[in-house]
Amino acid sequence: MSSAALAQKVEDLAVTINEEIHVKAPLQVTFDALIEQLTDGMTAAEDKPMRMKIEAWPGGRWWRDLGDGNGHLWAHVQAIKRPTLLEFSGPLMMSLAVASNVQYRLKEEAGGTLITFHHYALGFVPADFRKGFGEGWKMINQRAKDRAEKKGT
């Protein structure tokens, strides 16, 4: 196999999403709004509420709570350093052979907070998931920004 073909095979197994979000709100307010967005603020199709929980400590779970002890593990908290870092590792919404790393790094900047977001995944990621990731994260991150800016004023 040529190196170009091998590189394409690896590319087919990888997902990389990077985004910078400039938030007009203080660092702690932004961090708190991010946690709220990733839990109570999460929605599924047609903006239907999606009950998510985070145990906000290293090794804690981030999961979809379906009630009655049912649910879907999305990830574990890989690292948390309030209010500057929130990192997850796990399959996210995919019940497939996939490993993901999601990082939110927050930093004070003039007029507010800069969130640097990364989602890296490796494994069998179907095309429909691959396409939806960018759109989904952009929506989640925009809602976190809006939530923080509303609270920060």
Write a structural description:
This protein is of the alpha+beta class and 153 residues long. The chain has one domain (14-151): START domain (Alpha-D-Glucose-1,6-Bisphosphate, Chain A, domain 4), CATH 3.30.530. The protein contains three helices and seven strands; from the N terminus they run αβαββββββα. The chain has helices spanning 3-13, 27-38, 127-151, and strands at 14-23, 52-54, 61-67, 70-81, 85-90, 98-109, 112-123. A seven-stranded antiparallel sheet has the order 1-7-6-5-4-3-2. Helix 2 (27-38) packs across helix 3. The mean pLDDT is 92.
SSE diagram, text form:
Blueprint: H1 3-13, E1 14-23, H2 27-38, E2 52-54, E3 61-67, E4 70-81, E5 85-90, E6 98-109, E7 112-123, H3 127-151
Antiparallel strand pairs: 1-7, 2-3, 3-4, 4-5, 5-6, 6-7
Structural class: alpha+beta
Q: Architecture in CATH?
A: 2-Layer Sandwich
Let me know the CATH homologous superfamily: START domain
Largest beta sheet: strand ordering: 1-7-6-5-4-3-2
The helix content is 25-40%
According to DSSP, the number of beta strands is 7
